[in-house]
Structure formats: structure tokens, C-alpha cells
Write a structure and sequence with these properties.
The structure holds two protein chains of two kinds.
Chain A lengths: L1 E4 L13 E4 L4 H11 L18 E5 L2 E3 L11 E6 L5
Parallel strand pairs in A: 1-5
Antiparallel strand pairs in A: 1-2, 3-4, 3-5
Chain B lengths: L20 E2 L5 E7 L2 E7 L6 E7 L4 E7 L7 E6 L6 E5 L7 E2 L20 E7 L8 E6 L2 E5 L7 E2 L1 H15 L7 E7 L7 E6 L2 E5 L7 E2 L20 E7 L2 E9 L2 E6 L20 E6 L7 E5 L17 E4 L7 E3 L17 E3 L2 E2 L3 E4 L5 E4 L7 E4 L5 E8 L1
Antiparallel strand pairs in B: 1-25, 2-3, 2-29, 3-4, 5-6, 6-7, 7-8, 9-10, 10-11, 11-12, 13-14, 14-15, 15-16, 17-18, 18-19, 20-21, 21-22, 22-23, 24-26, 26-27, 27-28
The chains are: A alpha+beta, B mainly beta.
């Protein structure tokens, strides 16, 4: 299982839970599993062309991940960051 | 953000003494979308007192919020946040409880590459024909047209537009700074297959087969930003409305003026030429009287020099025509007399169905103004809201 750290803007999907565990060997698989558990959450982060949305950042085992094929490493942790800009 | 109450103690303006008649019932519901959430305002029967409920979805940009006139209780909300992608929320109990669409508007995935289009946000929501309960249309940015068969829960592309017409428009106008918009989705009340669609930028188009095929309807409309003197399309309609009781009567507030079209004709007449020259005929919204096809209101804004898009001279006013654009009358009683630089966005002005008609407009400065007497007098009914993006009046 991979631990996913969910930031507050997405807590409406996770019933205010900030850390959940889902299966997956890649970032894409983790997000698919997350969406199966919390329907709709993936589309708020990943667009219909499987691109990461402009204000979303992923860190997999502490390293920036920019595509869904990024493998989950031994630490098995995915951190989601919402990079808000503007007023 | 704490809940807000109406900014001023209501006082009875002149002309507001008569109770609303016609379909007025218990009052008017205003659905207000802002850059930081949604608000619902409910009036008493006189429309003198208003109660502000909200915000709902605080922090989300709400481009459009619409009550389904076919059932009087379903609402759809087009929303996104600063960092999260776009979605649609649905309520089936008049805005008490909301659920997210299971499949929001989204373009088809490009099979091989990552260069396919993605919906930035849904901009406009429109109920389909009265004989199609539960069906809705959605227009997006970048421009796309979608249809939901199930009350807004799932959305499918309208291929006739997204794959058929759109590539032609993209080739002509290229990428639109700030993002292109599909707005003004109009359904002919006599024929559910007859649709109109406004694109900013792109032009105005008609389909007689429910969106499978489209043809431009832009003759007579100026497009001073294009090199051709009389292009077939590529124009910039800001808002287009049709009259519900005379659906062959269309009014258009365009980037390049104010127009009327009477079908089956296909050449627009620039009725903005009849506006005072010092005011001009530039603006974003246009609203029709629900029972009189010859009466409409606009909110002119400054389209000179670098396009401030504020009330000309800092003196806000609505202009009304009662003769289909042959003449216009200034209506500014109650608005500030000077130093008031209002901007009213294209979906932020609305009319109710009462008698006399109530008018409503929201500013980017977060003020919501109402007139209970067809524009003769105006007063603020809420202040200090976030930037107002849409105001939709529903007579309950």
C-alpha cells in the first residue's frame, strides 16, 4: 500500500482525512485507486489528456513527479501539493 | 467568510410600492455566482426585502449557477478552484444539498499524444428544451459544447461542434488571450433541435439538427479586430438572447456594438447606432423583457482607447429600449452620480418574470443592485460580495 498525503483543498473528497492508503506501483495507479475510493478526486488533479493540472504538484518518495508513469519507490509515499497563485 | 446579510436596511424606493404580480408568487430567487463562491438571495413578494444565504462552496470560482425552470428545484453550478480542475455541482432540492457530477464536461482523450484539449472551466449552463426534462447543455473554455441527458450528472461532447465546427474556428481566430468562451446557448422553445450558440471569440452560429451541423449567423456584425471587412465568422459576441415569446427576435451585445436580428432574416441591424455617442454601444450583458419582445436593457461600458470596460465617465446607467432598439433611454436613478466605475460581466445581469419586471446586476466590485420597477429606480441589495460573475433571477 502507498500512503497518500491529501492537502486541504481535496479534503471534501476524503471526509477531511489527510492521509490515506491505497494500492499502486505508479503514480497513475495510485491516483486511479484513490479515485475509486473517492470518486471525482482524480479529475480535479489530472485533466482528460492525463496531464497534471497547472497548480498541482506530486512528490513521490520525496521526488517531484510530473507524469503518471512515475514509479512509486520503497518509501511508498505520494504527497499532493496544491500550488495556489494569485488573489 | 461569514454569512452576509443585505448591506442596507431595506427602504421602499419610489415605484416599488406595487406588489409583484403575474408569476411573482412568494418572491424572487437570485442565484449569484462569484469568484469565491455562490450565494442565494430570496426576496419577499414586494422584492423590497432580501435574505442572503451563503456562501456555498467558499473559495470556488462559480461561473454559472442556474435553476431548472422545468422542475423548479434542480440547480447546476459550474465551479473550479484556483488549483483544482473544473467540475459541475448539482442540487435537486433548491440548493440545500449538492453532489458533484460523476462525469463533468471533458474532451475526448487524444489517443496518442498529450496535445489534446482539456476543459479549463465550464462557463455557461443551459437547460435543454422543455420537452426534454433532465437534459442540459454546457459551454466551456476553451470553447466546447457538451450535453447531459441526466440532470447534469454526466456530460458528453457534442461532436458536431467540438469536432466539426471548432477546428474551423480555431484555424481562423487562433488562440484567444485569456481563453475562449462558449456562452449564450439558446434553445428555440418551438423546436428542440433548433439551437444557437455564441462564441467569444468565434461568432454566432445556428444548428437545426441539435448540434450535428452549424452555420454562421454573423452578417452585418462588425469585427474590427479581424483583417477581413466582412468575415463569415470569427466575431466576438459577448451575449446573445432570444425572446421567449417571439423566438425569432434575437438581440446581441457584441464586442463591436449592439445588434438585433429578426429571423428568418440573417443580417443583423446595429441598433447600437441609436445609443448616445458619448456612451457608445459597448458592453457585456443584454437582457430582454420577459413579455415584450421590443423591450431590452443593456449596461454600457467604456470601449474606447484601451478598453477600460467600466461605466462611461464613472456614471453607471442602464439603457432601455422599448422599440426594439430604435431609441434608448438612460435609467440611472439610484446609482452613484459620479466616481463609480462599475464593470458588469456578461452573465451578471438578469430580469425576473414579475410585473413590473425586476432587474438585477452584479459588479466585479461585489455589489448587487436591483430595480423593482423595470429600471426606473435602482438600489443595492448586497455589498461586499466577492467579484460577481453571474446573476440569474428565478421567479419562485
Amino acid at each position: 500500500m502507498t500512503a497518500v498525503l491529501v492537502p486541504p483543498p481535496l479534503h471534501s473528497y476524503t471526509a477531511n482525512v489527510g492521509r490515506v492508503e491505497v494500492p499502486g506501483a505508479t503514480l497513475g495507479e495510485v491516483l486511479s485507486a484513490l479515485d475509486a475510493r473517492f470518486p471525482g478526486i482524480r479529475f480535479r488533479m489530472i485533466d482528460e489528456q492525463d496531464r497534471v493540472r497547472p497548480h498541482i504538484r506530486f512528490f513521490v518518495d520525496g521526488a517531484a513527479a510530473t507524469h503518471l508513469a512515475h514509479p512509486v519507490g520503497p518509501a511508498r509515499e505520494v504527497m499532493i501539493v496544491c500550488a495556489l497563485s494569485g488573489g | 467568510m461569514p454569512k452576509k446579510k443585505a448591506a442596507r436596511k431595506p427602504r421602499k424606493p419610489r415605484g416599488a410600492a406595487r406588489p409583484a404580480r403575474g408569476r411573482s408568487g412568494p418572491g424572487v430567487l437570485l442565484l449569484v455566482g462569484t469568484r469565491k463562491g455562490a450565494f442565494l438571495l430570496r426576496s419577499d413578494a414586494s422584492r423590497a426585502r432580501w435574505k442572503v444565504d451563503g456562501p456555498q462552496f467558499l473559495g470556488q470560482t462559480v461561473n454559472h449557477l442556474v435553476l431548472d425552470p422545468r422542475d423548479g428545484r434542480t440547480m447546476l453550478m459550474a465551479a473550479k478552484t484556483g488549483h483544482l480542475g473544473p467540475t459541475v455541482f448539482r442540487s435537486t432540492d433548491g440548493g440545500k444539498e449538492w453532489k458533484e457530477a460523476s462525469k463533468p464536461p471533458a474532451f475526448r482523450k487524444s489517443p496518442e499524444t498529450l496535445d489534446g484539449r482539456s476543459v479549463g472551466f465550464t462557463f455557461a449552463l443551459a437547460p435543454a428544451h422543455a420537452t426534454e426534462p433532465g437534459s442540459w447543455y454546457a459551454g466551456t473554455s476553451p470553447v466546447g459544447l457538451f450535453r447531459s441527458p441526466d440532470g447534469g450528472d454526466s456530460w458528453e461532447e457534442i461532436a458536431g461542434f467540438n469536432d466539426g465546427l471548432f477546428p474551423r474556428i480555431e484555424e481562423k481566430v487562433g488562440e484567444v488571450p485569456g481563453g475562449s468562451l462558449a456562452h449564450s446557448i439558446l434553445v428555440d422553445p418551438r423546436n428542440r433541435a433548433h439551437l444557437y450558440l455564441g462564441l467569444s471569440t468565434g461568432g454566432f452560429f445556428e444548428s437545426v439538427d441539435k448540434g450535428a451541423n452549424w452555420r454562421p449567423l454573423n452578417k452585418g456584425v462588425a469585427a474590427t479586430f479581424l483583417p477581413e471587412p466582412d468575415p463569415e465568422y470569427g466575431h466576438d459576441p459577448h451575449t446573445v438572447v432570444l425572446h421567449p415569446m417571439k423566438p425569432d427576435r434575437l438581440y446581441q451585445q457584441n464586442h463591436c456594438g449592439l445588434y438585433r436580428l429578426d429571423r428568418p432574416g440573417d443580417r443583423w441591424v446595429r441598433i447600437g447606432d441609436n445609443m448616445p455617442k458619448e456612451v457608445g454601444d459597448i458592453g457585456f450583458p443584454i437582457v430582454v423583457h420577459p413579455r415584450d419582445p421590443d423591450t431590452a436593457w443593456v449596461f454600457p461600458m467604456d470601449g474606447t482607447t484601451v478598453w477600460p470596460r467600466t461605466s462611461p465617465g464613472g456614471k453607471p446607467a442602464v439603457y432601455r429600449t422599448r422599440d426594439a432598439g430604435a431609441s434608448w433611454q438612460r435609467q440611472d436613478r439610484g446609482f452613484p452620480r459620479e466616481q463609480a466605475w462599475f464593470t458588469v460581466k456578461r452573465q451578471a445581469m438578469s430580469a425576473d418574470a414579475c410585473d413590473p419586471v425586476g432587474l438585477y446586476l452584479g459588479t466585479t466590485g461585489g455589489e448587487l443592485w436591483s430595480s423593482p420597477d423595470e429600471g426606473r429606480t435602482w438600489r443595492p441589495i448586497a455589498s461586499h460580495l466577492p467579484e460577481i460573475l453571474c446573476v440569474v433571477a428565478a421567479t419562485t
